[in-house]
Amino acid sequence: MTDVRHYRGQVYGRMGVLPHTCRNGRETTLIIWGSFCATCGDRYTFTVPGLSKKFQPNRRCQRCKRPGRRVRQQS
To answer: In what order do the strands lie in the sheet with 4-7?
Structure first.
């Protein structure tokens, strides 16, 4: 099953599902998403809780992250 989402002009692909145990012992799942960094273009992955209703992903890899700074539009 391939799931693709678009967020602010960037494409994200679902890479898989990861079982996870919370600190309180509750079992849950994390969804692994992948995309290409909006700054350098390298591929990166990140996880999102499976029950999350919002999809507001990271747009940059860990090396290029800039919290609070907008991604410039590509021309």
So the answer is: 4-7, 10-21, 27-36, 43-49
